[in-house]
User: Fold EI24 domain-containing protein from Aquimarina celericrescens.
Amino acid sequence: MVKNFINAIKAYFGTFNLISKLGLWKYFAIPVLISLITGVTFVALAYSFSDNLGRFISKIWLWEWGSETFSTISTFIGGLVIIVLGLILYKHIVMALSAPFMSPVSEKIERYLLGNKGNTTSQSSFGKQLARGIRINSRNLLKELFFMVPLLIISFIPVIGIIGTILIFLIQAYYVGFGNMDYTMERHFNYKESVQFVRRHRGTAIGNGMVFVLMLFIPIIGFIITLPISVVAASTETVKILNEKGLITGKISTEQPKEVEE
Assistant:
């Protein structure tokens, strides 16, 4: 897992050169637009509703003394909660809607890395790729929210909250890495097999997603560059793993995906 984690981060180096070399920038125009619109929308919502949520939280404080201080803290907490939940929704909306545009990117990278052996072409239509992207990211969104709600509460508890915050970051990284890897897995695995594959290579997902989440905090630019380079990094690393495991073009595999109980 540690090796996969490190390799996933290292895969980000050289992504800009690879994008230019393969002429991939044209595929990112619509996904970047989706990312910008979605990102700006959630930032505006966080700014607009943080006060309202803060006032709601401040009602917990029943005493006069310290009410102003608690109200200020509540506004901050409200904004933080909206930002975290908004970030979760942002990631999955963007990745789901970008699926039909990212799959060709992953396919070109596979062909570049593997030559003739990597000419596996997706048989899915635009609609099917979009449907799979929505299914995968809806599933990941629900799973992520299941863990996030209690962890958000824990994160406000002194000392213990540090652990909660770290877990929030790692879980977000895992599921965003999952989404980025699926643009490649879509050509090789069905839905359940993809879930099993990512579970066995969670280090790759976390490493890729960790850089993704951190880059989103770069004002404006984060919404523009994060998706393109993270998808390229995830694709290069996922293709390498698939090739090593013999899961491309009919090679005998020593690690076939198993059925997964949802």
In short: The CA atoms of residues 59 and 201 lie 45 Å apart. Residues 250-262 have pLDDT under 50 and may be disordered. The chain has nine helices and no strands. The longest helix spans residues 67-114.
